[in-house]
Amino acid sequence: MHQDDFFESLNAQFQDALPFVAYRKPNEDRVNAVFQNDDVLYETKDLSEAGFVFAPFDDSSKMILMPLDQAEVGYCDHFEGEELLTDTSKFSSSSDQKVEYINTIEQAIATIKDSDLKKVVLSRPDYMTNENFQVFEVFKRLLSTYKTAFVYCWYHPKIGLWLGATPETLLKIEGQRLSTMALAGTQVYKGTTDVSWGTKEEQEQQFVTDYIVSNLEAEVEQISTSERRTVRAGGLLHLQTQISARLGKEHSGLLKIVRALHPTPAVCGLPKAEAKAFILNHETYNREFYSGFMGELHFKKRQTRNTNRRNVENNVYATVKSVTNLYVNLRCMQVLPNKVALYVGGGITKDSNPEAEWEETVSKTSTMKNIL
């Protein structure tokens, strides 16, 4: 579909108050869309269906599904748009927010020093007034700015409107192969990825890697990890380790694997149960879908052995694989009446400096504020 026609179709669906999601996977050109045919709020209990899932942070809440058997799919092969230059100097957050956030960080540090808690990820909403929110203009700016992220625009009339550009994969499954990542540590991108990291960031990243590996071991075989590397997401850098494995023959289904990973230490903390309890008791708002997960569930991918189309004989051996691509919902915004909530957080450990943690959240929202 041509780019103009694609966005026209999205706009028509939006004007008709029908659910849709449009998204582009990291480092790809194609923008995909799922257009639901009715306004029913479908949910998935076990992640067994084919469709696009949108799940909250709190895994006791409903996971929303746009089922492929109740939808049309479309795509635009290549999106053209101009990247915005980020000017971070003109943005700040309110002093009330600062006092409240730093107070919660101090409580977290005290709890970590006095309990089994090693790390907790604390977040906050940052509100911007936006009387005249142009949803598809903002989506186009996200597509232009975040080439290496999973960029999405998700709408359901019974839930609302969310957009974002997340650098973090929850998991990818293609046939029997599973891959995921450990992501932690943040610093501002200043023209190079050749940077040094402090002990706090390296230790935090190792916590995350070890946690994922130990949690997956019961469900998978042949698990392996890559070297730690620095990756860029918009105006920020993070530490990343790739983790890959083979699904065991006896694995107990996708829900069990997702539960082993979600919520990840990058959005919750370690140990998971203690960190989650601290978040639900001390954060002063409901995260809803921020730091939840979303993506393609059991999409079909056709693969041929032979890439030469003229050799029709070998194309008989084409295989259809089931593919699942799930992403953690970070760097996102929720469009509310007359305002937009930007969600942002950071990992707190015993060595955290509350003032520096606050500044990190201000850096993290600057690209999104620039887009708005």
Automatic annotation (TrEMBL):
The keyword Membrane does not apply. Its EC number is 5.4.4.2. InterPro entries: ADC_synthase, Chorismate_C. It is an enzyme of class 5 (isomerase). Transmembrane segments: none annotated. Pfam families: Chorismate_bind. Residues 99-364 form the Chorismate-utilising enzyme C-terminal domain. It comes from the Bacteria. The keyword Lipid metabolism does not apply. Keywords: Isomerase. GO terms for molecular function: isochorismate synthase activity. This is Isochorismate synthase. It comes from Formosa algae.
